[in-house]
Amino acid sequence: MSVSQHDAGGLFTHPKEFLTANLLCMRGSLPTVAGVHNFSFSNVTAELGYTCSRKSKYFWKSDHSINVWDIRHVARGGSAAFHLPYEPGQMKRAILPNEAMLMFTSEMTGCTFGMATYRDGTIEICHANYQTKNGHLDTARLSRETAWCAKRLEDHRYRETVRGRAVPNLARQARMGATVIGVRSPRGWTVYAQQWENLDGTNFKYLDLIEL
To answer: The organism sits in which domain of life (predicted)?
Structure first.
């Protein structure tokens, strides 16, 4: 089923199809407290000329262009979504509420996102970032502190590989990241991660859609 790239409403009605055909970016000042907040959606491909290319799943087809959407926190209006903030050297945890249809967290550029589903159906999520004293990513502590999560999106999954293939180029790894989006349906929450490469701040490559 195709979803119009000019209508962000497809994120609510056909989320997987929409997230395959559109790249979401979290920009601007984001809430520092976990909770339900208002967010606006702007098509910055149409408005500002942002570009994003995506490879076809068929090797004989050429790359094609998709739209880039800017998601910003707004005081009024927009769409309600649960936001889990990021804080350096910390792990933020929260229970996903039922009063929101969407969940966002700050863009992933080295952090670990995790989630656990408990027996009563409650889902807890986390966004963790720890660094060593010399400023490197503390992967051992990240792994240890998020061990309670049944599902994790660690940096090696979205910065060192693309669709199972290793990315040995360190400069390219530094440009790679992920946007994590949760969508609630009558069946519960589904969490996706859009893996991307940020070429220069306004031009991107869409690499993969990962379902956690």
So the answer is: Bacteria
